[in-house]
Amino acid sequence: MHKTGIEEHFIEKDGKRLRFGFTTGTCAAAAAKAAAILLLSGTAPKTVPIHTPKGIDLNLPVLEPVRGDGFASCTIRKDSGDDPDVTDGVMVYACVAFSDVPGILIDGGEGVGRVTKPGLKQAIGEAAINPVPREMIRNAVETVAEEWEYRGGLSVVISIPAGVALAEKTFNPRLGIVGGISILGTSGIVEPMSEDALIDSIVLEVRQRRALGDMRLVLTPGNYGADFLKERYGIADERIVKCSNYVGDALQAAIEAGFSEVLLCGHIGKFVKLSGGIFNTHSKLGDHRAELIAAATKAAGADEETQKTMFDCVTTDEMLRILEEKGLLSGTMTELNKRIDAALSKRFQGLSIGVIVFTTGNRELFRNGTARAWIQTAEKETGA
Question: Is residue 267 a contact partner of residue 359, using CB atoms and an 8 Å limit?
Fold first, then answer.
């Protein structure tokens, strides 16, 4: 069996060795590179080297090489390692052809979704190929063109025929990506995740903060919240526990560790889910942002047309923009604040939870009364 180079990379969780894999973006770049080699040299490589943004170098087997009049096509099979991924094993095709247009044009074919709504990283009408994979594809093909001293134009079309059916198992249709899946990957590598092990690590960190003498636990899902708290209120990184999507598990851990006060800070895109009593904010468990914001707009006095508009938005930023234009933002945020308070109080009785919700650009949308008092204290302590 051919070794790709990914076999050497793994993590150990819960006593198990979990293999790394590689993304659809890596597959697309490798397939495009192989197809470019076949087109310009006339010979298909058996394997193709590819460098990933993670810094891991791979050598992937090339499948189904085809060369025709002015084009060549090659295929790479995706290996997701031990990560539970619906795209594991899919065939990623790249067709590279001579073009009269200068440069390298990249597009999606069968099974690669196309964007139909604003708010995503690609413009409406473009293939759903994210920026990092797109750059990987471009760099791979440019490298081959330089090696063979070819200075003309090339077109690259990425296809994943199985993506048409797989898209129904993702949130792509809800996001306005139709006809297939997205070409993803920021590092080029798939790192396996064990949910239990991740929660265990969060619980451990919560206990450590209490053991270190913290009287109030500061929780946020990730880097955006940590940066917001640091920049706006001077709360140091080491004081902050990042709970990812596991807000409920982290709050329960806070109770068990002996905390009576928690400061909870997060982006509206995740924390709007708390208003519906959803304490695991991962999108795989449901994306109810539009429903929850629409319900809050109704309570704030929005007409039926405005409520329906929320369902046409791809992002919460877009929803906020519409609400601001209609003069409904303040009322809607007040309603969400009340609903989040109520949901948290019902689920985590005896725990005093301050909540701060912000949006893009570190713009604070609202904070509850408990958070307001705590932040005033923090500002006095830090001189912020």
Answer: yes
pLDDT at 147: 96
Nearest to 235 by CA among 31, 48, 359, 381: 381
Whether 117 has a pLDDT exceeding 90, the answer reads no
The whole-angstrom separation of Cα 307 and Cα 293 is: 8
pLDDT digits (tens, 9 = 90+) for 138-184: 999 999 999 999 999 999 999 999 999 998 887 677 667 899 999 98
* Token code pair at residue 92: 């990623």
DSSP state of 183: B
Task: Tell me the CA distances in angstroms from 1 to 5, 61, 88, 185, 305, one per residue in order.
Answer: 12, 10, 18, 26, 59
Average pLDDT over residues 129-142: 96
Question: Could you give the CA distance from residue 39 to residue 70 in angstroms, rounded to a whole number?
Answer: 7
Long-range contacts of residues 194-199, Cβ cutoff 8 Å, at least 24 apart: 194/13, 194/14, 194/16, 194/18, 196/14, 197/13, 197/14, 198/244, 198/246, 199/246, 199/249
Q: pTM of the predicted model, to two decimals?
A: 0.62
Query: Residue 235 — very low, low, confident or very high, per pLDDT cuts 50/70/90?
Result: confident
Tokens for 56?
Answer: 């891991």
Domain architecture of the chain: domains with CATH: 6-190 (3.30.2110.10), 195-382 (no CATH)
Structure tokens given for 293: 């914001």
* Rounded mean pLDDT, 338-366: 94
> Where do the H-state alpha helices sit in the chain?
24-41, 131-147, 163-166, 172-175, 195-211, 223-233, 247-257, 268-271, 289-299, 304-309, 316-325, 329-347, 369-382
Whether 359 has a pLDDT exceeding 90, the answer reads: yes
